[in-house]
Amino acid sequence: MTALVNQQIVLASRPAGEATVDNFRLQTSTVDPDALADGQVLVRIHYLSLDPYMRGRMNEGRSYAQPQPLGEVMIGGTAGEVIASRNPNFAVGDQVVGMGGWQQYQLVERHQRGVLQKVDTTHVPLSAYLGAVGMPGVTAWVGLHTIVEPKAGETVVVSAASGAVGSVVGQLAKARGCRAVGIAGGPEKCAYVTGALGFDACIDYKAHGDLKSLARALKEACPDGIDGYFENVGGVILDAVMLRMNAFGRIAMCGMISGYDGQPIPMANPALILVSRLKVQGFIVSERMDLWPAALKELGGMVASGRLKYRETIAHGLENAPEAFLGLLKGRNFGKQLVKLV
Amino acid sequence: MTALVNQQIVLASRPAGEATVDNFRLQTSTVDPDALADGQVLVRIHYLSLDPYMRGRMNEGRSYAQPQPLGEVMIGGTAGEVIASRNPNFAVGDQVVGMGGWQQYQLVERHQRGVLQKVDTTHVPLSAYLGAVGMPGVTAWVGLHTIVEPKAGETVVVSAASGAVGSVVGQLAKARGCRAVGIAGGPEKCAYVTGALGFDACIDYKAHGDLKSLARALKEACPDGIDGYFENVGGVILDAVMLRMNAFGRIAMCGMISGYDGQPIPMANPALILVSRLKVQGFIVSERMDLWPAALKELGGMVASGRLKYRETIAHGLENAPEAFLGLLKGRNFGKQLVKLV
Lengths: 342, 342
Known about the structure:
2 copies of one chain form a homodimer. Chain A has helices spanning about 55-60, 135-150, 165-175, 185-195, 210-220, 235-245, 270-275, 290-305, 320-330, and strands at about 5-10, 25-30, 40-50, 80-85, 95-100, 105-110, 115-120, 155-160, 180-185, 200-205, 225-230, 245-255, 280, 310-315, 335-340. In chain A, the strands form 3 sheets. In chain A, strands 3, 4, 5, 6, 7, 14 and 15 form a 7-stranded mixed β-sheet that branches. In chain A, strands 10-9-8-11-12-13 form a 6-stranded parallel β-sheet, with helices on both faces. Chain A is of the alpha/beta class and about 350 residues long. The first copy, chain A, is globular and about 65 Å long. Chain A has 2 domains: about 5-130 and about 310-340, Alpha-Beta Complex (Quinone Oxidoreductase, Chain A, domain 1), CATH 3.90.180; about 135-285, Rossmann fold, CATH 3.40.50.720. In chain A, strand 11, helix 6 and strand 12 (about 245-255) form a beta-alpha-beta unit. The first copy, chain A, starts with a strand and ends with a strand. Helices cover about 25% and strands about 25% of the residues of chain A.
């Protein structure tokens, strides 16, 4: 083989308010599979994972993660195949997941231990390792187990319920004997949440223009109140859920996508935390690496046996990644948003 | 003895906005110490405890406690002496604490087990059982132990730091090897907090008119950030503290006095719960009765040995209870607010 052209997307500028395609730039580099240094592995990326957290990293300033550096390849999870290796742990043809970023080829150095994980695609498709059996699935598992801690018979609500994280939250809650109620945008997503995913109810937030209306819908969908809430969205949805939380309810703060674009969105009535003796806790899945093996084992088993359903929205070609990402931020995706490169 | 006149204060009306003396009404009833039924105990109340939670109960509508019923004696903690008894568990002269309410005499029925607790005033003054060695002290202990869980070397901040709860929070945090930082209103209270109480620093919130100024003062007083926060106040103070919380910080929500009078006060930036992976949790001390014995043992020992300091503001005469209570809501008290009846 001769040197390969490696298309890459870098962060060109930071968004002022809403992110746009102009914040990204396509560039090319080259990589020569025949000229690997000792210990290097070259991966051809088949799928990019697009995730809401990436929007947070596009901003400068304090967040839990380092900001995405300007002019560098957008960071992100990837799944692909080893096409060249001078590392005894990886062979050509191995299916792997890693943090390859928004590019066609990922060159892994010898010292980057743990960056690449071999995966078994016999019973679980490669792309699922970026969704239900990957970071989003583990996020659902960790938030549910360490913060929401649902008991059988309790009611668990999750926002962005048709998404990569939310869909797993509800299905895991159902598997633990809970009433699972989703919140999603539009009748099609809601039908999927209660149909294919088996949630007990789903509220279309787009059909409810204000706090009161949303709170009323939650009351109807959750006749026994809400014991656990898995928050992916923030804003008025959080306010409405808080009004319906039972005493000693638990709220796992996983995402606040509604506030990424501008000024912080306040919580309307924090005194409810006291009145209802709530626990509201933020978490980041990458800080609970100790739980990943148990989570992946359960999630992989459930996907392999067909008990854990998921859906993917797939964009094609690296050049379409920015557009697909912006669509994700607006909820235009349906399930896990991927970009297929091969 | 003949029948005694029992002055009582009842809730006459619910506040519309700020509470006023007109919300209360003085009335009298009689009680005959010579005509007790079998099992009854009659207590002469020496001290009423005035506490911020009472303001919440004056409102109608959903809260963690039943609203104070209109036309009935204001509920509240009391300390006094048994003056007549037909109950083998209590003798005339016993010093007792209970929930006698805003009145001069408390008649306890035989079936009201656990309502009266005998206390030992050899080393601990009777009034302290309404403060540092009573509900406020246990509130500090429970919030600190079950939610803030401070480790030696960490920084713990508490609002209303010179008050009955806050003063104990900081002294317990110090005893556990933490840096204790108070927030209080005015230079006199702050001097007391750092002087007599031994906190490491105290911020006068009245000297800081906005969020930025308050956050700057917190940065100065907490050079290593804030690991634990004990919230008695809410509003802008909570917002400022949240800006300075370290990753994995814990916030115990004990009181939100700033929002009792009217519309809920929002939390400016709840996304910080996610960004800093905070745990924000509300609690009510009466729901952790299992912890009272251990808490009272430690607090009683510390008061008896002089290691736990406290201060009292004492109003005299039942008729002055409403005025004293309204002063407490405005922070005019200094330390534990009591009404002395005898």
